[in-house]
Amino acid sequence: MTYVLSHPEIRQAVVRLCADYPGEYWRALDREQAYPSAFVDALTREGYLAALVPESYGGSGLSLSAAAAILEEIHRSGGNAAACHAQMYTMGTVLRHGSDAQKQQYLPGIADGSLRLQAFGVTEPTSGTDTGAIRTNARLDGDNYVVNGQKIWTSRAEYSDLMVLLCRTTPRDQVARKTDGLSVLLVDMREVRGKSLTIRPIQTMMNHATCEVFFDDMIVPAANLIGEAGKGFRYILSGMNAERILIASECIGDAKWFIQTATAYANDRSVFGRPIGQNQGVQFPIAKAYAQMRAAELMLAEAIRLYEVGENPGEEANMAKMLAADASWAAAEACLQTHGGFGFAAEYDVERKFRETRLYQVAPISTNLILSYLSEHVLGLPRSY
């Protein structure tokens, strides 16, 4: 399989780690809707989840391309990094916008895994992706914020110590733009869980640990405000490119797994005295999915190149995420169709990976919103929402 992004030693090491967590491991978790604690612990011990934390805070200080290679190989090996990938990039809000004291207090623990920062509280039931319409509010009372409201699709909240929370600190009717007056708080959930913070898991079509979260007069020290009050929306946006690039790398890994799996099965499976891979009706969807994957991989490489030289590749990061998600879904369709009825059998892992990769058409940003972004900000078409 071709790799546009290098880091061969990192890739080989990740593949060796993933070999200890084969399909049987993921299938068992899928049946029980259980969290892959052993796998996450192994990634933590090897320092992979601290890839983007600077060495000065105890992290690996690796490049974004190295982090992308780690996630790609997890997915190409048949695993699912969604259980822990936020540990890689959610800390970026603290790293870019936090105070020196906040960085010293939290980043070393995030780097060594003693603190898990995997929860990102933004989306709400009534606002969806209309972030400016969020209602969760934080009222300053002396040295503390008092938080009330609700978040939904807050993944990994059950398995996280800290949460990056976007909330409204200035009422919407008192700001010029609806995205003004939003602030970011770093919530230590260990202190409030089960008291003023309630977490309710949401069962989904795949084994994805996501929740709805309720805040009832939750106290957060004012010292946990990240950056300036009222500027939280731009802080959240500043990390979106890295997130989309890393999710795109997972989709590329999924696409490669599906293509490899479909190709192997098509070569091995014989019907009417010949391998089914000899038939163009089987060959062509796999070949087309491969071409889509390679094209998406090149866009991903360009997004990473621009990011690593200090540019703000919103266009490229969004396109990489969309094209990679499309490629993984096309590869999933081809793989399932190639396997026929066996594709629906859990033991082949195709149906599990099929469900897992479908998520990325919707999250962490919908394909439709990416198209709206490109229409307005790249092509200059009228705003559609």
List keywords for this structure.
385 residues; Butyryl-CoA Dehydrogenase, subunit A, domain 3; four-stranded antiparallel beta sheet; 3 domains; Butyryl-Coa Dehydrogenase, subunit A, domain 1; alpha+beta; Butyryl-CoA Dehydrogenase, subunit A, domain 2; 14 helices
Largest sheet: 4 strands, mixed
CATH superfamily label of the largest domain: Butyryl-CoA Dehydrogenase, subunit A, domain 3
Unreliable runs, pLDDT <50, ≥5 residues? none
- The CATH architecture assignment of the largest domain turns out to be Up-down Bundle
Annotation, overall tally of beta strands: 10
Could you estimate the helical fraction of the residues in percent? 40-55%
Major sheet: arrangement of strands: 1-4-5-8
Mean pLDDT: 95
What is the distance, rounded to the nearest whole angstrom, between the alpha carbons of the first and last residues?
41 Å
Shape: globular
Any idea of the CATH class of the largest domain?
Mainly Alpha
Radius of gyration: 21 Å
The number of helices is 14
- H-E string: HHHHHHHEEEEEHEEEHHEEHHHH
Strand content bin: 5-15%
